[in-house]
Amino acid sequence: MIYLHKILPLIFSPLMLVIGLIILGIIFNLRKFSLIGVIVLILSSLPIISNKFIAYLEKDYQPIEISEIENVDAIVVLSGMIRVIGDEENLKYEFTIP
Fold first, then answer.
1. CA atoms within 13 A on the CB side of 62
2. Which CA distances in Å does 22 have to 9, 10, 50, 86, 90?
3. Which of 15, 22, 74, 98 is deepest in the core (most CB within 10 A)?
4. Average pLDDT of span 13-20
């Protein structure tokens, strides 16, 4: 019971639902389920669509201006590559996955 909060998000995650559709299609010989699962997986993996999903999720959380950030002793960045976004006057640095 204590690990239920860790297992439920995995079961109901979009990737697990797609894999479930594919497995149901294979087990019950329903090509429509397998095809829908593969199409959803491919479409959601495309950068054009995945970037739209990420932009939709991040639209309520605008970047914080550097002048608004408090002084601290240390900063830990858990990320990968850096990507520059914005126009020439207002550059923002965003950490991305390689």
1. 5
2. 19, 16, 20, 40, 45
3. 22
4. 90
